[in-house]
């Protein structure tokens, strides 16, 4: 039997799509088939020219209707994910949806319900979970290398452009810290510790209404905790640390795509474990989707939809506590 070729389409040929698709030629059995921009077909054509001459469309509806596209990578601003995802699912396409999956748990639940009903593969593009160093960290934790896990610390911050017209400050485009950088420490903590029993958050809003930064404390009934920070006001180290009863694991900056981890076992010298990523680091999530679609699977075991929904629920609660009012996009293209 001939190998299956999984044909990819890109919705939203922007900066992040350029980085992600740059790793696609490294993925066995994957090819870029089409790209769509709703602002201009010229933008789609320019993207296609750089990435091997895929078909270019000047609307999202056209790429969704293309019968020769198996997977849609949705790389639009967060509030626009909902409409593109629902349209793709209705057309029977598998989806890789850029993080944050949506800007509301309600929209995330709607997408997941539609995917389950249609029986199509959908995954959030949380590349951190597929980084080889993070995979190794999880293996060490599962093997008891640091004993019982008790706490997580993680921070991520950038000095974003302060222009009020920039997307970081535009609430209609899902601007702010929570959905761009805060999702990383939140998802990291949920991955290691599970869903917390309590959430306490404080933050600062900009005049436009977007969140500039937040500090978050997750509490668990058994005494475990997570302390998390996110900011677009200033750069932060971008480090994570997982504590256990028998040591700890450092994930050096930047923790959301690390090339190494440092294992500290009680009474032993620190052990640096180098585990570099392939390509730009997006290769690993692209392999996950390509192999799953070729095999007919409808969900990733590494980034399951239940975890995506849990993180969206947590972000809803954080937004509520800091007074952030989100602007969810439409349900139709």
From TrEMBL:
It comes from the Bacteria. One of its GO terms (molecular function) is nucleotide binding. Residues 135-249 form the GFO/IDH/MocA-like oxidoreductase domain. InterPro entries: Gfo/Idh/MocA-like_OxRdtase_N (IPR000683), Gfo/Idh/MocA_domain (IPR050984), GFO_IDH_MocA-like_dom (IPR055170), NAD(P)-bd_dom_sf (IPR036291). Keywords: Oxidoreductase. Residues 6-124 form the Gfo/Idh/MocA-like oxidoreductase N-terminal domain. This is Predicted dehydrogenase. It comes from Pseudonocardia thermophila.
